[in-house]
Structures are given as structure tokens and as C-alpha cells.
Amino acid sequence: MNHLDLIKNKAGIPLDDEEKRPAHEQVYRTLKSQILFGDLVPGQPVTIQGLTDSLGVGMTPVREAIRRLISDGALIFQGNRRVSVPLLSASDIEQMIFARISIETELSRRSAKNIAATDIDRLEDLDQRLDDMIADGDVGGYLRLNHAFHQALYSHAEAPILVDLAERLWLRFGPSLRIVCGRFGTQSLPDRHKDIIAALRDQNAEKAAIATAQDIEQGIGMMGDALTTA
Amino acid sequence: MNHLDLIKNKAGIPLDDEEKRPAHEQVYRTLKSQILFGDLVPGQPVTIQGLTDSLGVGMTPVREAIRRLISDGALIFQGNRRVSVPLLSASDIEQMIFARISIETELSRRSAKNIAATDIDRLEDLDQRLDDMIADGDVGGYLRLNHAFHQALYSHAEAPILVDLAERLWLRFGPSLRIVCGRFGTQSLPDRHKDIIAALRDQNAEKAAIATAQDIEQGIGMMGDALTTA
DNA sequence: CAGTATAAAATTTGATCATATTCTATCTCG
DNA sequence: CGAGATAGAATATGATCAAATTTTATACTG
Q1: Integer distance in angstroms from CA B58 to C1' D8?
Q2: Would the pTM of this model clear 0.85, i.e. be above it?
């Protein structure tokens, strides 16, 4: 039992039973979680040695995890060998809105065609818990459940490559989204999940796609506003 | 001067002067090139030790490069610690066509709005050389110049995130595309580059997008056909 | 004399490698 | 056919070297 296990369980969200994965995989998941849910701040430097110390593993697994995250766009390699959490420009956000809408509306469309009633119930349950988090003002919990909701929805699209592309985009905006939520609070984050669920029950793929697009525009659009006003 | 430099220059395509990049970066680029242009066969196992031997570098840089390529989707990690070049399913190809059309038509659209006349001349030059490769039946040269053409075109879109997503998709189908080209020959690969160039000269973004979509469908569509008939 | 600029040393961090350990798959023998 | 042995490959660590940043000391200028 090394430090990783402790950090993982700090999350509080049930994670799939991880058996005994290699350390580099565990480091990757830990960092991914931290980036996705905003435990790391945009611009923050990420050092290899710092991670070997704090996670209690050697340099090699840390290096591998960092390379993967750089490939994901979740971290950036700053030429001078330094690695940090990316700061997003207005153009970056605009590109991500475009890409997310292109990819994720399609994922919703496909999920709507495949998903079973019991799975819709499960989504509704997630959304309910998400609303509780908003009511409690729990930003971290909101981010985790929002991610879990979309992930659960898209898992029925039977399109792993598209899901992978979407996940990559989520990794890019995670840190910045956390900042925005922290500043404005969760109250100002109305989501379109209810609309998405209604569309799924109707088996109306196009309505699901439209609701997803609106959800994305509300979510990331807020980030764009925050960036231009700040 | 280690083995990497030799392998790099085997490519024959002028590469940006690389100064003194770290070895893991060089290994990544070397492997990326091999995957993109089909020097590696789908299904082929990739071993760390094999690469340390053939490239003449230590294990650490090789490991890092492999992790990055796994994150790119260019290699797959097979649970039991084995890594190999992916075999594509019909569904994979269908998803890639969708994603490429979504992303790359937009890249063409944006490039059409920004690109200058001299840059269009440069594209035309690339396309001319590409036609020579087709005439010569040089599959490797065709793949390289086709990639260079699209990369050059999209570089004017001023959308690095979308370019990154596109590049990721190219890495996925590189090996399989090579197989198909090898089987059918380059003759059967009509491209829509002339249409794209004409649209750029007209400053007609929508026409450029349509031509790009047709180019993609012809290119990868052929892969789908080959897969279902094989 | 104060403040700034410059240069050199020290510290921090990254990159690479060699080695030891662990795991997987295959082979062999009962 | 199954259990154990074996070989090969991946994983992980610590040591060592190189590069970059920061600090500190010194010189210079107004």
C-alpha cells in the first residue's frame, strides 16, 4: 500500500476495482483525476521530482504518466523541459466548443439509439446526485458527477474512438473549468441534463443532440465569458 | 550521432531542423513517422527491448515514447503488458470518417479564410509532387506527401487544438492505410486536392470544406471497403 | 552612496542508463 | 492434460550526468 492508494480514495467517487495495475497506470489515473476535477491550477508547474516525492513512486512511472498527459493535451511541455498545466486562450476555448459540439452531439445521438430504460434510470440518479452537489455548493463533487454523467451517457454510443476524443477535450478544460466554478459558484451552472434525459426517454436522438449542444455551450461558454472579462 | 539520426534521414522528406531534442522526443518522432507512413504493420507487436536495441537508446526514452503513442491511439496496450499496432474494425473506420469530416472540413474552412496566395502556390507544388509519386507507384512517398499536404493546409487554420485532434486520427489509420495502398496500388487513389486548391483560390470556404469531405471519404472509405471484402 | 546590471556559483530539476525485481507465457515432465 | 520450471520481457528504482533557474556576490553607473 503506497501513497497512491490513499490519494485515489480521497476522491470519494467509487472507482472501478483496480486490481493490481502497474504504477505508471496508477500515477496516470491519479493525475488525470486531479486535472479533470481541478485539483491542479492552470499555469501551475508540474515537476517530476515533486511527484516522485508526493506519490512515493520512482521517476520512471511518473515520467511515463506525464508523457501520456502531455499527449492528451492535459499538460504542456514548455520547450525548456518544464511541464505545466495549460492556460487557455479565448481561441482555445472556441475550438474546444466547436470540437465538443461536433463529437459529443454525435455521441448523444448514438447513445439515444442504443440506451435501455434501466440505464436512463441510472443517468437520472446521477443527475439527482449532481443537483444535490449544486445545492450544497460542492464544486468538486459537481465536477465529478458531471463528468460521470456524460461518461455514462456516452458509454452507450458504442464509439470508443469518439469517446476517446471527447475525453481528451475534457482533460484540456478541466483545470480552467474548476477556476470558473470556484469564482462563480455552482448556482450559476444550470445544466441541460433534464432535457437530455427527456430526449432519451422519447428515443429522440436529434433532441438529445440539441440538448447536449446547449449543455456544452452553457458550460464552456461561461469559461469564455470569464476569460474575456477577467 | 546515434542510430536515431540515421533512421530519421531514411525518411527522405525534409524535416524541420531538430537541433538537440531529448532522446525521448526523437524516439517519439521516429516511431510516429513509422506509424504514420506504414512502416509498421497492423497487429505487429512492439517491444521495448526491441526498440532499445534497434534505436540504440536506453529503455526510459523508449518507454516514454511508447506511452505517448498509446495515448495518441497509435499503439494499443493489450492488458498483458504487450503493446502492438492496432487492427481497425469496421466500426473504428466509420467513427474515424465521422470525426475526420467533422474536424478537418472545419480546418479547411478556416484555412480558406486565412491562406495567402503564395501559400496556395506551395500547396499546389506539394500536390504536383504527390501526383509524381502516384505515377511512380511510390506508396511511401504518396503517404508522406499526402500528409504534408493536409498538414500544410491546416496550418493556416490557426486552430492548434483541432489540428491536434486531426493528427491523432491520422496516427490511428496510418498503418491500415498503408496496407490498403500496398494492395490496391496508388493508381486507385484519386484525391480531391485539385478541388481543394481551386476552392482556396476562390476564397470559397464552403467549397473547400466539401472537397475536403470528399477527399476523406475516398481515402478512408477505401479502407472500409478493403476491410469488409477481405 | 544607492541602485542597477552583470557574472559566476549553487541549487533545483530533467534526462538517461544500468540493475534488480516482477510478471507472463511457454515448455517440459509426470 | 496439468503443475511446476524456465526464459524472456516489462516494471521500477537509484545513481549519474546535463541543463536550466535562482541566488549571490561583484562591478559599474548616475
Answers
A1: 18
A2: yes
